[in-house]
Amino acid sequence: MVLSIDANSTHDPLTEPVLAEHRPVLFRYALLQLRDYDLADDLVQETLLAAWQSLANFEGKAQLRTWLIGILKHKIADHWRRSAREVYTSDFELVDGEDGEVDEEAFFTCNGHWNGGPTTWNDPEAALKQQEFWAIYEICHNNLPPKMARVFMLRELVGLEALEVCQETGLSETNYWVTMHRARLRLRECLEIRWFNRIKQEKSDA
Amino acid sequence: MRNCREITALVSQGLDRKLSFGERIAVNLHVMICSRCRNFQNQSWFLRKAAQRYTESLQNRLSKKSPND
Ligand SMILES: [Zn+2]
């Protein structure tokens, strides 16, 4: 089980276009936390500028993107401090309860068979087009334990590579697999109960 | 023979790393006969797609907001 990463960037000369390649990921990272388009845009701009000005400090020890995210993280933290909003619970220290193990047991019987388990969903593509579905999606995502939600967000919503998520969150590779797997088990179950079963119900009632 | 718990763990990992030949065979044979794991596999792919779609629509939604609200 080896995570690999297509990191050619550290060997390329660091030019503006090379930095700009990371813009979309940085922007999603900022936007998902700030929920403010212009602010996210500004902070990413500032991040790239700061990076450009301090390229000398980047010794290629870290992945370029990890380094950029580090700068952005500081910008975001500064923003929260300035705006005196409730301190953004500085992510990576988040620790989930001890319920993890129990949690996965609940999905399977002791010999590894499904306990209940996934039913067939009716036209999931159609759900993507419905406003109400996205409200449920948010609820289900927010129902995940904080650290799990963060790991899932970094991988699937921000679009970091698995290895980058491990670096960001300090998870070992093994814990990463377990965390992502549990997140999927939980999310899928939540969507099934709150959305897909209801749709089935409404159909059969109609 | 791997059970459902082990198969679904592989399905999850398969979204982030290339499974070995043996692992892929095990998953494919299992989902042929197990509808729940097949559902899990489809739904895991769906979750990935939904996450991307969610982020896209969030970007659209927030960019269209007027600056004063
Ligand atoms: Zn199965």
Give a brief description.
The complex is a heterodimer of chains A (206) and B (69). By secondary structure, chain A is an all-alpha fold.
The proportion of residues in beta strands of chain B is: under 5%
Oligomeric status: heterodimer
CATH architecture of the largest domain in chain A: Orthogonal Bundle
In round numbers, the mean pLDDT of chain A is 83
User: How many strands, what sense, and barrel or not for the largest sheet of chain B?
Assistant: none
Structural class of chain B: mainly alpha
Cα-to-Cα separation, first versus last residue of chain B: 58 Å
If you had to describe this structure to a student in words, what would you say it looks like?
With 206 residues, chain A is an all-alpha fold. Chain A has two domains: 8-82, RNA polymerase sigma factor, region 2, helix turn helix motif (Rna Polymerase Sigma Factor, Chain: A, Orthogonal Bundle); 94-205, Winged helix-like DNA-binding domain superfamily/Winged helix DNA-binding domain (Arc Repressor Mutant, subunit A), CATH 1.10.10. Helices cover 64% and strands 0% of the residues of chain A. Chain A has helices at 16-20, 23-34, 37-53, 64-82, 100-107, 124-127, 131-142, 146-158, 162-169, 173-205. The model of chain A is unreliable at 5-11 and 87-94 (pLDDT under 50). Chain B has 69 residues and is mostly helical. Chain B has one domain. Chain B has three helices and no strands. Chain B is elongated. At the A-B interface, helix 2, helix 8 and helix 10 of A face helix 1 and helix 3 of B. Zinc ion binds at residues 4, 7, 30, 34, 36-37 of chain B. Zinc ion binds next to helix 1 and helix 3 of chain B.
